[in-house]
Amino acid sequence: MIWIAALLIVVGLIVLGFGRRAQVEAGLPIGRVIYADTGDWRAIEKPLFSITYRLVGKPDYLIRRGRQVIPIEVKSSSAPSDGPRRSHLLQLAIYCLLIQEHYHQRPKYGIVKYADRSFEVDYTPELESHLLDVLDAMRNDLANGIAHRSHAEPARCLRCGVRSACSESLV
User: Fold this and answer.
1) Edge-to-edge strand order for the sheet containing 61-65?
2) First and final CA of the chain: distance in angstroms?
3) How far apart are CA 11 and CA 28, in angstroms?
């Protein structure tokens, strides 16, 4: 009976080791995956929602590391040479804001993971303030009827979740 218990413990440790290695190879920090929107790890989660900021979002991953929750946004493109794109920083900041409301704690940082490189982005009060300013400007433009599509890329429109409601859709 002791041999069976010992064997089960060894098998469990091996499985745990493979899981940790897969997590590291995927570019995720060590910790417990508590949310995944990729469908690769588990069923797709419900979006996070903020009543306070009237925002909804589905981060690719949330990792719990101790008491800290870390948002991770995965991009399939290569990393820009000068750091994460502004839109990706703001997207990550939205996830930090949603985590703060949903989990009642402020993340210290989040990660933008490109195909060839990852960036840890500090969630500073300045980044949060910038995000809130951008959201206010966007809502103001929308209320005044001056919000417009910001690209000329049909492929981007094809992947857009609000394409059916957009009067400027290219597809």
Assistant:
1) 32-36, 61-65, 68-74, 109-113, 118-122
2) 65
3) 23
Q: Report the alpha-carbon distance of residue 32 to residue 154 in Å, rounded.
A: 38
Rounded Cα distance between 124 and 144, Å, is 30
Mind spelling out the 3-state secondary structure of the chain?
CHHHHHHHHHHHHHHHHHHHHHHHHCCCCCCEEEEECCCCCCCCCCCEEECCCCEEECCCEEEEECCEEEEEEECCCCCCCCCCCHHHHHHHHHHHHHHHHHHCCCCCEEEEECCCCEEEEECCHHHHHHHHHHHHHHHHHHHCCCCCCCCCCHHHHHHCCCHHHCCCCCC
pTM of the entire predicted model: 0.74
CA neighbor of 47 nearest in space, from 105, 118, 102: 102
**Which amino acid makes up residue 20?**
R
Rounded-to-integer distance, Cα 168 and Cα 18, Å? 47
pLDDT of residue 103 exceeding 60, the answer is yes
Contact criterion met (CB below 8 Å) for 60 and 94: no
Q: Write the pLDDT tens digit of every residue in 151-168.
A: 778 887 887 777 777 778
Largest alpha-carbon pair distance within the chain?
Answer: 74
